[in-house]
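#struct-pred

JT: dropping the chains for the assembly here, can someone run the whole complex?
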Amino acid sequence: MSKKDIETALARGVEILEEFLPLKSWLLFPVLYAACVWAVRRVFDYRERILAWQVWLDPEFVRTKPDEFVLDFFAGHDELHREYAAEIESGDLRVLRAAFPALYPVFGLEDAFLKALFKAELAAADYRAIVVEFAARTAKARDGIAPAAADPAFWRALILIGVEAASLGLHLLKDEEVQDMIVALIKGPAGLGPTVPPEA
Amino acid sequence: MNARLLRAPALVLIVALSASCLTHLSRAKQHYAEGQTRARAFQAGQAVAHWKKALDEAGRACRRNPSAQSFTVKGLAEANLGLWREAEASFLQAFSLGFDEGEAWASDSALAGLAASFESLSLEVPALRIYAQLVDKSGFKPALMVAAERRTNLVLARASGLDPSEKERTLAALNKAIERLLDRDFACGLYHYLHAQVDGHLGDLRRSYEEAVMARELGLPSEKIGRDNDNQLVYCYVRLKDTLPAPDRGALTAAQARWAAKWGWPDDRTPAWKRE
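RK: done, full complex below.
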């Protein structure tokens, strides 16, 4: 395998996905990245996984976690600990509990699609922005993907793209390398503007 | 002579139609069983696909040659897909065709559907009452599992607003209800998971850890629940390790190391999926 081969396969993937998702859709990145991650792990229930983020956690599920669990979650994650140090120190559970439903699915349950959806914020370590954006962006993604999701050819294409990338040795690249490669491909020729994602 | 000539093709036709009905029913059963297997393996997407196929095949079998079996399989597929009203109708048909338990299953399906409707309208009190009724009385596992999960979530949400002693009483009563479910079906991973959640709220980390381990070993109905269970397990383990006296701590660490090796975790506190 060569990095170039993978890049070519991913470029083809972008091209194919653009037939299903709106031109330069900001959903291209999370969908393609998640497909690559899952293909490497040899799991192919993409449809369920991509659609699952919509209902990744029942609201009650998160709402009912004990305060100690919530505190431990923030304190146990280095970057979240840094960001929420003041609240953890003062035991400000109001803020922490409000942030928990957005941050626990991303950091605690580590869903590849959600992580890609908030790549810009994660890269900038702007975790509070994830909290602010979570409901709106996940709702928007749900609406945005609906037309493509109804087309079985979209799911077939996604699996083929993932399988091809995986067969070329995608697992040998670092996560960040794969992400950067996809971002560069999606951005395309200068002037078309970034698409990952618009709110970031 | 003519009658004899006609009889042979008619016989062939009857045999062919019966075989085709049998095929639809047996296919429906195969898909339903495959869906159950996939669900146990956390392959929810494929499980749903198989249940949908089971529903489709069972529907054909019901139309061609209505039988208690075909309506029962149809109802089971519908219940697994959360189509409670449809499941109720199917089980009633199965009952009318001789499936004795069909009436009770229809009634439980109707109650599960009604509770879900109440919840969707934010009417939590009547929903809770129905779920409690199902948890105590239902013998129909799909409805029972949904009711147990929803009831636990609703009670935990309401308990957060209570004063400490009231909260403890409420959660202890909730645990008693879950223990009654475990008495009936100790091999159900979901009940152990629910127990672990309630124990966590009660501060009984040792029990919560043990229940989470059992839940993991017995299997859980979805990946999201499985991951949350792993997080609960690690949370309890780390906290227990910090608080236990040295000999107990050693035993706990050794036990957790064995579990982690069995589950393919890279270390005692990192589930394999965290490396994805």
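JT: nice. The two ends of chain A are 34 Å apart (CA to CA). The interface with chain B takes residues 37, 41, 45-49, 52, 56-58, 60-61, 63-64, 66, 68-69, 72, 108-110, 112 of chain A (CB under 8 Å).
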